[in-house]
From TrEMBL:
Superkingdom: Bacteria
A Pfam family it matches: zf-CGNR
Lineage of origin: Bacteria, Bacillati, Actinomycetota, Actinomycetes, Micromonosporales
Listed name of the protein: CGNR zinc finger domain-containing protein
Domain Zinc finger CGNR positions: 105-147
């Protein structure tokens, strides 16, 4: 969450955050991570994606967004300030990706030691790793495992 706050220049939005806000942020992050793993083709429990989607639908009702329409642009803005507003902004960013047809490109790195979220910029959405370094690590790990098994 802190990296999102810093990237979006939202200084002060987490002032006064409570332990329940931290727990809510953790749950929101976990649900989004499940969906990003699904986009990456990771093996998941049968009900994990459905549970994450249900949780995000419930969260969206707690942290509403308000459409603001103008002559030059329109935007979804949080109905609340603080942590609630921050959570709404995260959901708004997801909504924006989905609206642009890019939500499936939001993935999590398949390198077992990384799991960093990334935006897949490949032409055919086949990216599996966040960087060439992670791709190389995963390839070398697979190579060593094949050599060990032989």
């Amino acid at each position: 969450m802190l990296s999102f706050v810093n990237a979006e220049s939202l200084d002060g939005w987490l002032d006064g955050a409570t332990p329940s806000d931290v727990a809510a942020a953790t749950e929101l992050r976990a649900s989004l991570a499940v969906l990003l793993r699904a986009h990456s083709g990771c093996a998941l429990d049968a009900g994990a994606v459905g549970a994450a989607e249900a949780h995000l639908r419930q969260v969206a009702t707690r942290y509403p967004l308000i459409p603001v329409v103008g002559a030059d642009a329109c935007a979804l803005v949080p109905a609340h300030d603080g942590a609630f507003g921050l959570f709404a902004r995260v959901l708004g960013a997801v909504t924006d990706l989905a609206y642009r047809g890019a939500w499936a490109r939001a993935k999590v790195c398949k390198n077992d030691t990384c799991h960093t979220g990334f935006f897949d910029k490949t032409r055919n959405t086949s990216g599996l790793y966040c960087s060439p370094a992670c791709s190389s690590q995963a390839s070398m790990r697979a190579y060593r495992n094949r050599r060990k098994a032989a």
